[in-house]
Amino acid sequence: MTTTTPAPVGIDPQTDRNLTDACATVAGEVARTDAKASLLLAFAGAVLAGLVSAARRDWPLPAQLAGAAAALTLAAAAVLLLLVVRPRLRGDDRSSFPHWARLDDDEIRAGLSTDTRAARIRVLSRIALRKYTLLRRAVDLTLTALALLALAAAGAAL
What we know:
- It comes from Streptomyces genisteinicus.
- With 158 residues, the protein is mainly alpha-helical.
- The protein contains 5 helices and no strands.
- It has a domain of 101 residues.
């Protein structure tokens, strides 16, 4: 048997559904950024490991310079990716677990007696936007590093 929870007082059912859907959508976006960043971190780590092992060979100077620039660029991308997955533990938004961790049982019940979905959507949207911005920059740096690696390979082939 399926039951439906009535919309909070003063909120029409469509707005209630929209708020619930938006919360789920934005939370999903935050999770997707973490998954993408994890994959890119693994890729960056593998490429950096390959660069370290290739650095032991005697390469022409242009290839060495391009390889070093690629390694530095890839390391910068890895730093941005680590910032994507770094937990945000500020509790000043009143709609997240870091805030709830500072409250006692009665304060939690009082805080949850009001509809905080709009605040949650706002906070999660800001988190998602920041994560996607960092992720985009990391991808741009990774692509730049790959171009530098192509230059290094071309320099090594000369």
